UniProtKB/TrEMBL annotation:
Pfam families: Transgly, Transpeptidase. Signal peptide: none annotated. Keywords: Carboxypeptidase, Cell membrane, Cell shape, Cell wall biogenesis/degradation, Glycosyltransferase, Hydrolase, Membrane, Multifunctional enzyme, Peptidoglycan synthesis, Protease, Transferase, Transmembrane, Transmembrane helix. The keyword Membrane applies. This is Transglycosylase domain-containing protein. It catalyses: [GlcNAc-(1->4)-Mur2Ac(oyl-L-Ala-gamma-D-Glu-L-Lys-D-Ala-D-Ala)](n)-di-trans,octa-cis-undecaprenyl diphosphate + beta-D-GlcNAc-(1->4)-Mur2Ac(oyl-L-Ala-gamma-D-Glu-L-Lys-D-Ala-D-Ala)-di-trans,octa-cis-undecaprenyl diphosphate = [GlcNAc-(1->4)-Mur2Ac(oyl-L-Ala-gamma-D-Glu-L-Lys-D-Ala-D-Ala)](n+1)-di-trans,octa-cis-undecaprenyl diphosphate + di-trans,octa-cis-undecaprenyl diphosphate + H(+); Preferential cleavage: (Ac)2-L-Lys-D-Ala-|-D-Ala. Also transpeptidation of peptidyl-alanyl moieties that are N-acyl substituents of D-alanine.
Length: 768
């Protein structure tokens, strides 16, 4: 009996022993897991985000350039990403995202317990368990991570910890917004805002249900579900999302059927620095910001980074006017270019006119040395002989044409000569009272021609300089637009006004008209009158006034400047002319309204720069002189419809403006540069047209003069602006000063009806 009892107690002892051992191991296991989580949260297994990191995650946001009417003109980025608030997200996109990616999003606290257990017991075969918060944690702080299982488990633990911290730190809506801001949708678009612009060319708030469903479908794998490369797969995935929305009772079955039948309709627009709206202006602004960041620091003393700090640059550019300006330049330059190619057909040295072979070789060599090909080959230690030889070998390339890019085969040398054929243009429009720049077009195509002919390119201004001479004469000599002066032979002898030889200016048509008023003289752009006026005032006085008008380039103190032998940028010319429209007060051109940081705090506001140049009476007298140009001079075609020489290249003609317009055309020697400066009371616009090289030009005044080359751009642009009533461009009179002391209303003979074609030809001949 004793032996039997002994055996029973031994059995009982063994069971109790194993029970205790099991619970001890289980406790150690739980403690181990708790310790593992604790050590992971402390960062012992790799860095974890701090409280500050969670408050301000490294957002890497693109800086946005915003127009005065609230349109994003472009971005500066290394990662093209814009930040949206929850209120900016369309409701249908939020609903689709939650229904598809995390149905219990509003119920859990970062980790979905049910989903996690399901994934564990099914070994991941029945779907994953990552919540939206976990996916956000991965996107913000870890990325895809390792495929090695132990490291993968460690990463998953970190995701859980970070997800819980994010849920404590942010509201559900903030988490959704952050997730929509960080996902990479491919094609250089990160975040819903960039994706909506890239794939549909619209703001997120304007997305339709099927468009939102497509983007939500891409959250699964944007590389696989790329609508450009895999439209069929994207459509199938979109339809899955629509099905999930039905399950969540967000849309009806009938709505789903209707939406699933729709094709994937893209309006794809790849956002890049070289394409889009206001490309030349954005590059000009980028150069400005490079200097700005060195002079304006963050509160902690560090530098701003325009590529990742998510700044919002509010500009004075009006997106509508910018579009009209780009359309005007494109329409006219395409039209005028056809004529240029026609003229160059029989030119063996096209596009150069009347230059020696030596000069041609110099131009071509300089172009080679400025090319990307030359720089790249130089970096590989190629000799100059080898580099030059490579320019003579035919190669495949894509070239610019006005009908779109074209693939072709030609030598790099031939491509240089081909691109030298293209006429370029610069346009800037500005409000004279505020200095706000409303439109800026620096060339015909930034991708292929990156030289900015508004802010960078100073070119000879021709007769558009003459109003500065007339303004000086009115101020210094107390003259008026109605005063008469003799148009006849005139000479400034050697030694006077620093001339080194006798200077005898001639009119472009070699005619003299006898006694004319100043208004008639400027309308007909008479050279001898401008020369007589600068002789009386002195070149020094004209240069001094021109500097006060904001012209920054060096001006020679010579009488010849009266005819426009001066290089000035379009930007400076617009600012100078604006002074006349602003009653003699110069306002420095302004392209910035303010700069905000990513939190919306204003960190910079420019202070307008102004100074008095002329009294109101003199400024108004110059305006009246310039009105004569569009009433009877080289700008009269803005008001007529009779046609004339070269009228097939007057883009947008007839213009038929009836409102007051002050303006001046300009054409330089040999038709290398064509100008038109046009003003109405609240908008001053300058246009320049010419080739990159001055020796590439039209052979005659018919097409090379400013009235044909540049004025049509202004006319086309203004017709578009006037058609848009929201812009409120003035059609009224220029403001007349009270108690005007200068006679501006001159006697005019009764109008005589003449042949319109002949009138146009005659007035064109007066232009220089």
């Amino acid at each position: 009996m004793a032996a039997k009892k002994n055996n029973q107690s031994k059995t009982v002892k063994d069971i109790n022993y194993y029970k205790k051992k099991f619970w001890r191991i289980f406790a150690y296991f739980l403690l181990g897991i708790l310790a593992f989580f604790l050590f992971a949260s402390w960062g012992l297994f790799g860095s974890m985000p701090s409280f500050e990191d969670l408050e301000n995650p490294d957002s890497n946001l693109a800086t946005e350039v915003i127009s005065s009417d609230g349109v994003v003109l472009g971005k500066y980025f290394k990662t093209n990403r814009s930040q949206l608030k929850y209120s900016d997200l369309p409701k249908n996109l939020v609903e689709a995202l939650v229904a598809t990616e995390d149905a219990r999003f509003y119920e859990h606290s970062g980790i979905d317990g049910r989903g996690t257990l399901r994934a564990v017991f099914s070994l991941g075969t029945n779907g994953g368990a990552s919540t939206l918060t976990q996916q956000l944690a991965k996107q913000l702080f870890h990325g895809e991570g390792s495929r090695f299982l132990p490291f993968r488990i460690l990463q998953k633990v970190k995701e859980w910890i970070i997800a819980i911290r994010l849920e404590r730190q942010y509201t559900k809506n903030e988490i959704l917004a952050m997730y929509c801001n960080v996902y990479d949708f491919g094609n250089y678009s990160v975040g819903v805002s960039s994706a909506a612009q890239t794939y549909f060319s619209k703001e997120p708030k304007d997305l339709t249900i099927d468009e939102s469903a497509m983007l939500v479908g891409m959250f699964k794998n944007s590389g696989l579900y790329n609508p450009i490369r895999n439209p069929e797969g994207v459509k199938n995935r979109r339809n899955v999302v629509l099905g999930q929305m039905v399950k969540a009772k967000m849309i009806s079955e009938a709505e789903k059927e209707k939406l699933q039948a729709l094709p994937i309709a893209l309006k794809f627009k790849l956002e890049s620095h070289r394409e889009g709206t206001a490309t030349y202006f954005r590059e000009y602004l980028r150069d400005y910001l490079k200097k700005w960041v060195t002079e304006n620091k963050k509160p902690d003393g560090s530098d701003y980074d325009i590529y990742k700090d998510g700044l919002r640059i509010y500009t004075t550019i009006d997106s509508r006017m910018q579009n009209y300006a780009e359309e005007a330049v494109s329409a006219h330059m395409q039209n005028l270019q056809q004529q240029f190619f026609i003229e160059q057909k029989n030119n063996k040295n096209a596009p150069f006119v009347n230059i020696t072979q030596k000069e041609t070789d110099r131009i071509m060599m300089q172009a080679m040395k400025n090319s990307v090909r030359w720089a790249q080959m130089k970096e590989t230690d190629k000799s100059e002989e080898d580099i030059i030889a490579s320019f003579k070998i035919k190669t495949r390339m894509r070239v610019f044409t006005w009908k779109g890019e074209r693939d072709t085969v030609m030598t790099p040398m031939d491509s240089i000569r081909y691109y030298k054929h293209f006429l370029q243009s610069g346009l800037m429009a500005m409000e004279p009272q505020t200095g706000n720049i409303k439109a800026w077009v620096g060339g015909i195509n930034y991708k292929y021609f990156q030289y900015d002919h508004v802010g960078q390119g100073a070119r000879q201004v021709g007769s558009t300089f003459k109003p500065f001479v007339y303004a000086t004469a009115i101020e210094e000599l107390n003259m008026s637009p109605c005063d008469s002066i003799l148009d006849g032979p005139f000479m400034i002898h050697k030694g006077r006004h620093h001339v080194t030889a006798d200077w005898e200016p001639r009119n472009s048509d070699y005619r003299y008209r006898g006694m004319v008023t100043l208004k008639q003289a400027l309308a007909a752009s008479i050279n001898t009158v401008s020369a007589k006026l600068i002789d009386r005032t002195s070149p020094e006085a004209v240069v001094e006034l021109t500097k006060k008008l904001g012209v920054k380039t060096e001006i020679p103190v010579q009488p010849s400047i009266a005819l426009g032998a001066v290089d000035i940028t379009v930007e400076d010319m617009v600012a100078a002319y604006s002074t006349f429209a602003n009653q003699g007060v110069y306002v420095k051109p302004q392209f910035l309204s303010r700069i905000e940081n990513k939190s919306g705090e204003v960190i910079y506001e420019p202070i307008p720069e102004t100074h008095d140049v002329l009294n109101k009476d003199i400024a108004f007298a110059v305006i009246k002189l310039l009105q004569g140009v569009t009433e009877s001079g080289s700008g009269v075609r803005l008001r007529t419809q009779g046609g004339g020489s070269g009228d097939n290249r007057w883009t947008g003609y007839p213009y038929m403006f009836t409102n007051p317009i002050a303006g001046k055309t300009g054409t330089t020697q040999n038709q290398s540069d064509g100008w038109f400066m046009g003003m109405v009371p609240n908008l001053v616009t300058g246009v320049w047209v010419g080739c990159e090289d001055r020796s590439a030009r039209f052979k005659s005044l018919t097409y090379g003069q400013g009235a044909t080359a540049a004025l049509p751009v202004w006319g086309y642009f203004m017709k578009k602006c006037y058609a848009d009533k929201n812009l409120q461009i003035s059609k009224g009179e220029f403001e007349r000063p009270k108690n005007l002391s200068i006679k501006v209303d001159c006697y005019q003979r009764p109008a005589i009806v003449k042949d319109t074609t002949q009138t146009e030809q005659n007035t064109d001949e007066f232009e220089l």
